Amino acid sequence: MDVPNLEFSLYFMGYEKPEDVPTDPKARAEFAFSRKATLELTHNFGTENDDKMKYHNGNSEPRGFGHIGIAVPDVYAASERFEKLGVPFIKKPDGGKMKGLAFIQDPDGYWIEILNYKRMASV
């Protein structure tokens, strides 16, 4: 959706009807982490030509937005694919204290958490 008078565009991906949400707490949690998410992406017109424009990923000072998370059915399979594609990792699934989740980095340095939706439903 372009909003030329405000000089930005919005992109939305995914949407579910509220009546499709389960009422059982465990089923609701699994649904929340396994369904298509609604993600809004904003493009500010002109930033691609602005030499002063720079990104801040929020994981260093000054802190702010940290990361987005994407739920997948198999973190290890997803991580193998990312590795084959040359995607940089912040944390691999068996690294650190928290096992079974990964953090990758997009081309702008933003962190993306890769997590298992079934595991999140049991937390």
Description:
By secondary structure, this protein is an alpha+beta fold. The chain is 20% helix and 27% strand. It is built from three helices and seven strands. A hairpin with a 4-residue loop joins strand 1 (2-3) and strand 2.
Short summary of the structure?
The chain is α+β, with helices and mostly antiparallel strands. The protein contains 3 helices and 7 strands. It has helices at residues 25-34, 75-84, 117-121, and strands at 2-3, 8-13, 39-44, 67-72, 89-91, 102-105, 111-116.
Summarize the helices and strands and which ones pair or pack.
Blueprint: E1 2-3, E2 8-13, H1 25-34, E3 39-44, E4 67-72, H2 75-84, E5 89-91, E6 102-105, E7 111-116, H3 117-121
Parallel strand pairs: 4-7
Antiparallel strand pairs: 1-2, 2-3, 5-6, 6-7
